[in-house]
Each structure stands twice: as C-alpha cells, then as structure tokens.
Specification:
Helix content is about 30%, strand content about 30%. With about 240 residues, it is of the alpha+beta class. The chain folds into two domains: about 110 residues, TolA/TonB C-terminal domain (2-Layer Sandwich), CATH 3.30.2420; about 90 residues, 2-Layer Sandwich (TolA/TonB C-terminal domain), CATH 3.30.2420.10. The chain is globular, with a radius of gyration of 24 Å.
Length: about 240
C-alpha cells in the first residue's frame, strides 16, 4: 500500500514540476510568422527587379496567354530580410512557377516590423502581367473594411449565384449551407483577390470562389472617390 502511495506522490510531483518548467520556458518567436494585417510595417523589396519576370516569361509564351495568367505566391521573409521559403497559392503553370522561383530566390527585403521589432512575416505576391508585367505585393491594408458606398456586384448577388455550379459530390451528399468569401475589390470594380473565410467543403468552396472572382463590381466610394474595399460575400448552396 505504501509503495502505491509513494508512486502516486512521485507522479504528482513530476506533473507539478513539468508545469513549473513550462511556465518558465519563454515563447519561441523564431517560428512565428506574422501576416500583413498583424504587422506595423510590411516587408519591402530592397534588392531584386520584379519586372524581370515579364521578360523571362515572354520568351516562351504569347502575349494572349500571358494576359490570362493568374498566379499567386506566399514568400516567407525572416527577421533579417532573407527569403526562407516560397509557397504556391494559386497556379496552373509549372514553367511560370520555376521562373518565379529562380527570379526571387536571391532577392533581399526589409523585415516586417511589429511593436518596434523585426519579425518573421508572410509576404503574399501575385504575378500581374496585364498591367505592369511584374510581381506585385498583395496588401490587405490597402483595402478599406468599410466605405460610404460599398462595392456591389453588377446585377446584384443574383449575378454571382447564377454562376454557381453545384458540385455533384455535394449534391449526392446532401450538402447545403453558406460559403463566406472575403473579396478585395479595387477602385475599378475588379476582384483582385478572394479567399474563403468559412466554407462547407465538397467542392462548394471552390465553386463560390470562382463565381466571385469572375464577377464585376461597382467600385466602393469614399467622398465620391473610388477606393479599394474588402467585402464579405455570402454564397448560398441549397438543394431544390
């Protein structure tokens, strides 16, 4: 009996000791990566020519195909301004991906800043060849969360719903519900970026995202001037 009590006492003291050690252990910020909205100052390119991507791609693609490209990447920038990793967010062209990787691998950046300190950060970029032919940062901070006149889809929400193709797998599974898409609308009413905030899966999230991206909006306005605005759009999936 005494041996059992001693065993329980030993286990109890071990657990308490572990908790004490965990309290003393400092938070490891070297493996924390901050998004743009969490930063006081976002990273900036200091060494590297973003326009050079255009010239490399134009060697093997026609202008028409280049204008149809829509690729996006995440760059992980450490607190020293070094590129640690590139992640492909959206792309259907491995050749373009390889060119982008080869182009950005030697770039240098200023580090992201939070509370006066350099931190690891996520730097999203997209290949915008229709206008500048360059890699362009995607900054959520440029987009207002509200405006005097909010963006509206041309033709109303019905214009988005009418583009929805209900995935067969979702139909067979009887999946219904709402998909919420955060959309970034520029001053010309174009959707420059969109992402699913809350989804229902089984292909519905992708269907909602594609419908929003292909929709034209009336631009948001502040004091009569067109501005960039981010809006949350609910897309309904309901079986008949």
């Amino acid at each position: 009996m005494k041996s059992i009590l001693l065993l329980f006492a030993f286990l109890f003291l071990t657990i308490i000791s572990c908790k004490e050690d965990n309290k003393k252990k400092p938070l490891d910020l070297d493996h924390v990566w901050y998004s743009g909205t969490m930063l006081d100052k976002e990273p900036q390119i200091t060494e590297g020519n973003s326009d050079s991507v255009w010239y490399r791609i134009s060697y093997f693609m026609s202008k028409e195909k280049i204008n149809q490209l829509n690729v996006k990447y995440n760059l992980l920038i450490d607190k020293k301004g070094n590129l640690k990793q590139l992640t492909i967010l959206e792309s259907d062209n491995p050749k373009v991906d390889s060119i982008v990787i080869a182009t950005v691998k030697d770039w240098k950046f200023t580090a992201g800043v939070k509370s006066g300190k350099n931190v690891n950060s996520v730097y999203p970029i997209k290949l915008d060849l229709r206008v500048t032919g360059s890699l362009k940062p995607i900054s959520e901070k440029e987009y207002l969360t509200s405006a005097e006149e909010m963006p509206m889809p041309v033709g109303g929400l019905y214009s988005i719903q009418s583009k929805i193709k209900y995935p067969e797998i979702a139909k067979r599974a009887g999946i219904e519900g709402k998909v919420f898409v955060q959309s970034f609308i520029d001053e010309n009413g174009n959707v420059t970026e969109a992402k699913v905030i809350k989804g229902i899966g089984t292909g519905c999230d992708e269907a909602a995202l594609n419908a929003v991206k292909s929709t034209k909006f009336t631009p948001g306005k502040q004091k009569g001037i067109p501005v960039k605005v981010q809006v949350l759009i609910p897309i309904m999936f309901k079986l008949e």
